[in-house]
Design brief:
GO terms for molecular function: alpha-L-arabinofuranosidase activity; carbohydrate binding; xylan 1,4-beta-xylosidase activity. By secondary structure, the protein is an alpha+beta fold. It has 20 helices and 49 strands. The chain is globular, with a radius of gyration of 30 Å.
Length: 977
């Protein structure tokens, strides 16, 4: 549990613990923070400083790579950054596997998530101690990137589209990971991926354009709470660019992450894997490795993750940068101190007898308490999307058909550990009902493949290791049948009935040897059926090769369809027909469909659709037609669309919830617990509602609940219950005006008016009614998950600090609170508001713009989004607006009463020839006030000031547009004289 000191710290800095909506929580972050208590001590830092003094330059540089070698002469052991621990210890053998992060987010239960984080931290320590330090204690977790677009291949790794939900869940998880010792860390969490990273396609070259308002009000706020709480020790710089500059060399690392931290000297920022190589590779940002590494270190990066365990390229480049003057020893020493201070916080320099976590041995891994916690988390993350008419909960007197491709499977995702056991929905329901009441069917066809030209069948090996798929003249169904499951429009898996192993490709030969689909970028066990006139072709999706016959064996080796083998796909058992028969024979049908966590979308690959696979939809349609009492269980890593939502009476969603998936689903289906999870992101109806996945301006695109995502399938915060709740007696104080030194208090009474005990998630939103700028449609200000027995009531109280209502004022480049009235909305979801109130908030009125001072173009109020690009002013710092022919930026409410006669515009232009800048009144086509020609500066980073004579610029609160004609320019500053 969170210790009292750090709980008080959270309250003081405005981060809720989620234990109760009392006290001052959720205050908007201030731009500068006061010093907060730190685990680090002055004495410890002095010891680190003394150690740095003893190290040679080469030894210091060796500590800046992921794999840090031992330095025996100063008693430094080897050290490795980066143990994955997203929802359990990953990639290091068996460990407790909790629900995916998206599932942890759907609990809306920070107290639970802190316990999960603590269990994961214990298992990291257990593996560390059991391996004599071989398993590192710097964990790269959690992922807190906003879930702004469900097509993102790594959607399952994040918590929410909302910074408050994500911030509270991440703070709780990192609190558990960090441990409760007041002096030392159990593990040292690093947050992924800072910042503006939500697409896999071209992820290293994507330029995430983050306007100042959204940067400060939205994107940064996902990372701030765990850093400010002192739980996370740093961030991982993301692959992408932000406003033209690669994040690996972004000054945001120092400007924000270290400013937020209670102890800036104990922040350890790391690169993503191989990302530094991109600076001179795909990003073409620097000409030399030396210059690239020097810029990264000065920007705030402390550890380079590249070239696996071979640190030589990194160390040679940094040494070269020191030698040629790109880097100085002061910057080197500062980065080394960051590394060693975190190592010190992990207790590395303690004698074993004083290590507060020495008792965490391998016996903690997968212990019964963790198994039960995994089951509790898997239960609490389930979301009841629909129950009308109410089929759920299922009576234990009923006979149940458990159907679907995920009914008897539980899959690991890329960042899962190895499950010590797997409880599938079939397992869970069979345990509850007994085998005699359960009838199962996968709902997938069992097929035989007959090669067209020879009429021979494809056979498979019968042993556990399988064998090479070959053609055989005999019709031996037990050897040659394959269960064909469709996961996307073009991705199928083939599971051989001969040994229940998946068909994979080994050295281009097809072999039925894989226990489950797996593999980096694209799994090796997926195939595509392509219809042709005389049968079907089989295409291996990973290698993009067609299956051909060579010496009687199947090989994924043909580049052209004309060289591929033709097969006849004979259905020996019709999956839909079998499932329908099972459904009609039983009292109720539970159909489990969804997605495979490694197929269709995952790291390195975004999704193109949110629709479930066509064969799964076909299964659903037929079952619900045959059995009106059908329950759909969707198991997925992201929002999906079945297309038959209206026909289905009851729909339950779960993430890929780990080893306890089946028992947890059964607990909810039979009503041992009422589902209390809530959606942490909006579910669109289709991809047609979404913009380009690289569009990061959610305000412009109307994305997430904050900006009114149009007509969603299910809204943010949505979730039904087996019970019902009444909201009453909403009180908002003060009744007058909320002053800057006060807090608003919202109280509401909630009563369970149903017949069973259940959880409710009380959600509090506000909407600012008037503003000089566009404000979000609504903002979540607080939430609390409560448990009530039938007829039980409780009063939920929530306090909001005045600064929580702040916004980013681009005119003065700071946070301010506008004087305004806010609607207070309390309910069960963002679209299920039960009670409304209002609150007057005192604050500033944003004054007219004063362009007599130098004003950044990026701080404009509006611009022509289709023709501008936010770019880097230089390789080190700053943001400018890249403009082309016809593009414009607009400044509103400009004070022109001084009747300026000249404007100065700072511009860079790489191309030859001349462009033109115009200043116009009111709009891009308004009255011309002046113009000037812009010649080339021969360098995109070389800015020149150009004078624009003005005629007729006068008045108060006028709109001024800067328009570009006939070429491309980078506009840096504007000033009126």
């Amino acid at each position: 549990m969170m210790d009292t000191t750090r709980r008080n710290l959270l309250a003081a800095i405005g981060v809720g613990t989620g234990l109760a909506l009392t006290g001052t929580v959720n205050a908007a972050p201030k731009e500068s923070t006061e010093a907060q208590p730190s685990r680090g001590t002055e004495q410890r830092n002095e010891r680190v400083d003394a150690l740095v003094e003893r190290l040679s330059t080469e030894e210091k540089v060796s500590l800046l790579h992921q794999y840090q070698p031992p330095i025996p002469r100063v008693n430094l052991d080897s050290f490795r950054t980066g143990t994955e621990a997203l929802h359990g210890v990953a990639w290091l053998g068996e460990a407790t596997v909790f629900p995916q992060a998206i599932g942890l987010g759907s609990t809306w239960d920070p107290e639970l998530i802190e316990r999960v984080g603590s269990a994961v931290g214990d298992e990291v320590r257990g593996k560390h101690n059991a391996s004599s330090g071989g398993v590192g204690l710097n964990v790269w977790s959690p992922t807190v990137d906003p879930l702004r677009d469900p097509r993102w291949g790594r959607n399952e790794e994040g918590y929410s589209e909302d910074p408050l939900v994500s911030g509270e869940i991440a703070t709780a998880y990192t609190s558990g990971l960090a441990g409760d010792d007041p002096e030392y860390l159990k593990t040292a969490p690093v947050l992924k991926h800072f910042i503006g990273y939500n697409n896999e396609t071209d992820r290293t070259t994507t330029n995430a354009e983050l306007p100042p308002r959204l940067l400060h009000e939205y994107y940064l706020q996902f990372f701030r709470p765990p850093i400010e709480a002192g739980n996370a020790v740093g961030v991982m710089a993301s692959y992408n660019r932000v406003n033209g500059r690669p994040m690996t060399v972004s000054p945001l690392l120092n400007r924000f992450v270290r400013e937020w931290a209670p102890d800036s000297g104990s922040v350890l920022n790391v690169s993503d894997a191989w990302a530094p190589m991109n600076l001179t590779g795909a990003q073409e940002y620097f000409e030399s490795k030396e210059t690239a590494r020097a810029h990264a270190l000065r920007a705030g990066l402390d550890s380079f993750t590249e070239n696996g365990s071979d640190s030589s390229i990194t160390t040679d480049a940094i040494l070269g940068a020191l030698e040629n003057g790109d880097l100085n020893h002061r910057d080197l020493d500062e980065a080394v101190r960051h590394v060693l201070r975190v190592r010190s916080l992990l207790g590395e320099f303690l004698p074993p007898s004083e290590d507060p976590y020495a008792d965490l041995t391998e016996e903690v891994i997968g212990r019964p308490a963790h198994q039960e916690l995994a089951r509790e988390a898997a239960r609490k993350q389930t979301v009841l999307l629909k129950n009308d008419p109410a089929v759920l909960p299922v009576s234990e007197d009923d006979s149940v058909a458990v159907l679907g491709p995920l009914s008897d499977r539980v899959f690991e995702d890329w960042y899962s550990g190895t499950m010590p056991y797997r409880s599938t929905p079939v397992d869970g329901l069979r345990d509850r009902f007994g085998a005699e009441q359960i009838h199962t069917a996968v709902g997938a066809d069992q097929i035989a493949l007959r090669e067209r030209s020879s009429d021979k069948y494809v056979t498979a090996g019968v042993g556990k290791g399988g064998g090479v798929l070959r053609l055989n003249g005999t019709d031996t169904p037990s050897v040659q049948l394959f269960e064909a499951v469709q996961w996307t429009e073009t991705a199928w898996t083939l599971q051989a009935t001969a040994n229940d192993r998946y068909v994979t490709v080994d050295d281009d030969q097809l072999v039925n040897s894989a226990e489950r689909p797996a593999g980096w970028e694209m799994v090796q066990e997926t195939f595509e059926f392509i219809d042709v006139d005389d049968g079907v072709l089989l295409r291996h999706r990973s290698s993009e090769q067609y299956v051909a016959i060579m010496d009687g064996a199947l090989h994924a080796s043909a580049e052209r369809q004309s060289d591929a083998a033709r097969f006849v796909r004979e259905v020996r058992r019709d999956g839909v027909e079998t499932a329908v028969e099972a459904a009609t024979d039983e009292d109720i049908a539970v159909v489990v469909v969804g997605t495979h966590p490694l197929i269709g979308g995952r790291e390195t690959r975004d999704r193109e659709t949110l629709a479930i696979a066509p064969s799964q939809r076909d299964l659903l349609e037929h079952v619900v037609d045959a059995q009106p009492h059908t329950v759909l269980v969707i198991e997925s890593s992201y929002p999906v669309r079945t297309g038959v939502e209206k026909q289905l009476p009851s729909i339950l969603w779960t993430s890929h919830a780990g080893q306890e998936t089946g028992r947890a689903v059964a607990d909810v289906l039979v009503g041992d617990v009422s589902p209390g999870g809530r959606l942490p992101q909006t579910w669109p109806r289709s991809v047609e509602q979404l913009p380009d996945i690289t569009e990061y301006n959610i305000a412009k695109a109307g994305m997430t609940y904050r900006y009114g995502q149009e007509d969603p399938l299910y809204a943010f915060g949505h979730g039904r219950s087996y019970s019902s709740f009444e909201y009453e007696n909403l009180r908002v104080s003060p009744r007058g005006t909320l002053d800057s030194d006060d807090n608003a208090t919202i109280t509401v009474r909630v009563t369970n008016t149903g017949s069973m005990a259940a959880d409710e998630v009380v959600q509090i939103y506000t909407t600012q009614r008037h503003s000089r700028t566009r404000r979000p449609d609504r903002v979540l200000r607080g939430f609390e998950r409560i448990h009530l027995a039938p007829d039980e009531s409780t009063t939920v109280e929530h306090s909001i600090d005045h600064s929580a209502f702040s916004c980013w004022d681009v005119t003065r480049r700071k946070r301010i609170v506008e004087r305004a009235t806010h609607a207070v909305l309390v309910g069960s979801a963002s679209d299920d508001i039960r009670l409304r109130g209002s609150l007057r908030v005192d604050g500033d009125r944003i004054p007219p713009r004063d362009l007599s001072k130098e004003t950044r173009a990026v701080d404009a109020d509006d611009w022509s989004w289709s023709k501008i690009e936010l770019l880097d002013r230089s390789r080190a710092e700053g943001t400018v607006v890249g403009m082309s022919d016809g593009s414009w930026v607009s400044f509103v409410d400009v004070d022109l009463r001084s009747k300026p006669t000249e404007a100065t515009v700072s511009v860079a232009r790489l191309e030859s020839g001349e462009a033109t800048i115009e200043l116009r009144h009111g709009s891009p086509s308004g009255r011309m006030l002046g113009s000037t020609s812009i010649p080339s500066t021969d360098d995109k980073y070389e800015y020149a000031s150009h004078s624009v004579p003005l005629n007729g610029a006068s008045g108060n609160r006028q709109d001024l547009c800067l328009v570009v004609r006939d070429g491309a320019v980078r506009v840096n500053m504007i000033r009126l004289k």
